Write a sequence for this structure.
């Protein structure tokens, strides 16, 4: 997930960056910080973000004006305003703002926003695969786990599976931001579909028992605990 923070006060830049790092310390969340809207617009044009945290009161370009320019570029990006004055809330409706966060930022409120954005992005994320000569679109949120089978990868969904000619490393890269974890050289699993972790295996929602390599057991538990903690808010 790509996050941008635009605030002219360094203390709030540091606060929100540190909170995001704390919440998603084990996940691939990129945070870029900007002090003015012009630089953010330039970067957004080159590589759009998933969610934007914009200070409303900035000298060169205020957050509302910046949000309008960003909304012209994307109808889908999530915009969150940072402010000390809730009276600006009505103006936020013009740019379809997701939320307002008051300064100083509370961790629980920030966590709620990030969880919402991540869930929305995962829900709409699709994998394009080629199985049995057909191009298929698979919803990432429906994937239970993937199994490497020589030069192929079997993708397991609830009550459905697809065999594709591919490399597991490619899928690991594609799904790195979607709550997936490589438990074994042959298995990549969705943390949201884990039912239980044993001493050397995981039990998945569909009843499958998959081996966990010794070196991956501790990192798996840490990743799962972090994932569950984030889901709890």
């Amino acid at each position: 997930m790509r996050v941008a923070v635009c605030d002219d006060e360094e203390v709030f830049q540091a606060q929100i960056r540190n909170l995001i790092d704390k919440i998603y310390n084990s996940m691939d969340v990129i945070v870029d910080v900007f002090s003015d809207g012009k630089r953010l617009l330039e970067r957004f044009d080159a590589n759009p973000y998933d969610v934007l945290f914009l200070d409303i009161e900035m000298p060169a370009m205020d957050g509302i004006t910046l949000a309008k320019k960003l909304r012209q570029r994307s109808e889908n990006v999530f915009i969150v305003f940072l402010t000390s004055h809730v009276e600006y809330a009505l103006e936020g409706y013009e740019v379809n703002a997701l939320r307002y966060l008051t300064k100083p930022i509370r961790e629980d409120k920030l966590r709620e926003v990030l969880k919402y954005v991540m869930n929305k992005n995962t829900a709409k994320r699709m994998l394009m695969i080629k199985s049995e000569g057909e191009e298929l679109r698979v919803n990432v949120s429906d994937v239970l786990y993937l199994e490497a089978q020589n030069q192929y990868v079997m993708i397991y969904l609830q009550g459905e599976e697809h065999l594709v000619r591919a490399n597991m490393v490619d899928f690991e890269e594609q799904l790195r931001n979607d709550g997936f974890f490589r438990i074994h050289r042959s298995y990549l699993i969705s943390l949201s579909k884990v039912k239980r972790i044993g001493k050397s295996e995981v039990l998945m929602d569909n009843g499958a028992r998959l081996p966990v390599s010794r070196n991956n057991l501790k990192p798996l538990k840490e990743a799962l605990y972090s994932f569950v903690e984030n889901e709890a808010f």
Q: What stands out?
A: DSSP finds seven helices and 15 strands in the chain. The chain has a mean pLDDT of 88.
